[in-house]
Design goal:
mainly beta, four-stranded antiparallel beta sheet, 8 strands
Length: about 110
């Protein structure tokens, strides 16, 4: 697997990450309708995760060409913003077939005030 982009954090399903006193827990994959690797699909699909950010539950989608107000890609909690960048492994990859742990990559920034 690739290392996360500098400033981003990867969190394995069921675990948490911390930054500047804020705790982000990866609780669940709510939906994963992404097109499997090496398959031509009419729709790219979407992946939505449930995170707990400082004890507040949010559902966020990774950018995949499809976005909606129902599943935003960013949540603001207090003084931070959390963006979902990616969820791995992608369906149909060798990592998925081999049981690689599910992890979410998030980017954390300061909320605009």
């Amino acid at each position: 697997m690739q290392a996360p982009t500098e400033g981003n954090m990867r969190i394995v399903l069921g675990e948490n990450g911390q930054k500047d006193g804020h705790v982000i827990t990866f609780l669940d994959v709510v939906e994963d309708s992404r097109c499997p690797a090496n398959v031509d699909c009419v729709w790219q699909g979407r992946v939505t995760v449930e995170l707990e950010i400082d004890d507040v539950l949010v559902h966020l989608s990774a950018p995949n060409g499809q976005s909606s107000d129902q599943y935003p890609t960013m949540a603001e909690q207090g003084e931070i913003q959390v963006w979902v960048i990616d969820v791995r492994p992608r369906p149909g990859t060798a990592e998925a077939r081999n049981g690689a742990p599910v992890e979410v990559e998030v980017m954390i920034g300061s909320a605009m005030r």
